[in-house]
Amino acid sequence: MIVFGSSCCSVSSFLAILVVLIAVALQIFENSEPIDVLSMDLNALEETYREGNKSCFILGASGETGKVLLKEIVERKLFSRITLIGRRQLTFEDQAYENVAQEVVDFEKLDDHAAAFQGHDVGYCCLGTTKAKAGTEGFIRVDHDYVLKSAELAKAGGCSHFSLESSKGADKTSSFLYLKVKGQVEADIEQLDFERYSVFRPAVLMVERAESRPAEWMARKFLGAFSTVFPTAMSIPIGSVARAMVANTVIQGDKKVEILENKAIYDLGQKREK
Fold first, then answer.
1. How far apart are CA 249 and CA 260, in angstroms?
2. Residue 83 and residue 86: Cα distance in Å, rounded?
3. Is it the case that residue 9 has pLDDT exceeding 50?
4. So what's the pLDDT on residue 18?
5. Percentages (nearest 5) of helix, strand, coil residues in the chain
6. CB-count burial class (<10 Å; 0-12, 13-18, 19+) for 171
7. What is the value of pTM for the model shown?
8. Across residues 51-80, what is the average pLDDT?
9. Is 178 annotated as catalytic?
10. 191 SS3 class
11. Spatial contact of 224 and 206, defined as CB atoms under 8 Å apart
């Protein structure tokens, strides 16, 4: 028993050290272009943006990121009109949401709902599911087909800036289905040629989900301790993602297509929080 206990202790120590080393490596080698957040006056940028009297839509507002994103947008009062596009009507108790419009659509027949995507300046897409929840075909249909078709309708409807929540490691050549699908839809939307296209690639989202995802729950518990030392290596608070998506909207970037990796998202989200 003593030997077994010692062995378990040694294995645990080895795994802990290994995770720390991986975290350090990810922190150092993340291929994200730095954003000069220190010199930004986001309050001034927001004020200027409000004067543009712009409108936006959100896909996936019932999901974890979408809910926080909607709250951030409503509180910042950046848009004259906010529209939620989803498969069901959402209810809100807070009066701050009383002017938020909602369009209920059938994602299997999106062409029939083209009008819902018309007249928006900015589109935010936080739509997504998992293979465990929807199966392989269902996952591809939601995370690729629904997202791409929505982007096509948004482009046709006059949307100039499309922001997509993707995933760290997204790569259309990946052998992992999740990362391959995320990378493929990124690439397909880029071909639509939006005036501005922003892709956000967060790592493991630190949030207590309403729905149970055991693997993510274990990952959050395991990574929680490391996030205090290496906040962007392997995870990110979901609030940082939402704040970064909003802050990025008001920044007049010089790139038609921009990919924000986890560290860039975190830094921008922290800037907005201050």
1. 13
2. 10
3. no
4. 45
5. 50, 15, 35
6. middle
7. 0.82
8. 96
9. yes
10. coil
11. yes
Instruction: Put the strands of the sheet holding 196-200 in their side by side order.
Output: 101-104, 81-86, 55-59, 122-125, 161-165, 196-200, 257-260
CA atoms of 182 and 164, how far apart (whole Å): 10
Q: How far apart are CA 237 and CA 3, in angstroms?
A: 40
**In 10 A of CB 178, how many CB atoms?**
16
Instruction: Assess whether 149 carries a catalytic annotation.
Output: no
Q: Which of 268, 143, 151 is nearest to 200 (CA)?
A: 268
Give yes or no for a contact between 115 and 88, defined as CB atoms under 8 angstroms apart: no
Active-site annotation holder among 71, 131, 172, 178 = 178
Instruction: Confirm if 163 and 124 have CB atoms less than 8 A apart.
Output: yes
With b meaning 16 or more CB within 10 Å and e meaning fewer, what string describes 203-241? bbbbbeeeeeeeebeebbeebeebbeebbbbbbbbbbbb
- Do 60 and 126 form a contact (C-beta atoms < 8 A)? yes
93-104 burial, b if ≥16 CB within 10 A, otherwise e? Answer: eeeebeebebee
Amino acid at 250: V
Annotated active-site residue in 182, 197, 263, 266: 182
Q: What is the identity of the amino acid at 57?
A: F
> Which one-letter DSSP state was computed for residue 229?
T
Q: pLDDT tens digits, residue range 202-242?
A: 998 887 655 555 665 666 565 555 555 555 557 899 999 99
Contact present, 76 and 246 (Cβ < 8 Å): yes
Specify the DSSP class assigned to residue 270. H
* 23 token code pair: 């975290």
**Cα atoms found within 13 Å of the Cα of residue 249, Cβ hemisphere only:** 33
CA angle 265-63-27, nearest 5°? 25
Q: From CA 44, how far away is CA 204, in angstroms rounded?
A: 31
Matching residue, tokens 């560290």: 263
Asked if residues 89 and 115 have their Cβ atoms less than 8 Å apart, the reply is: no
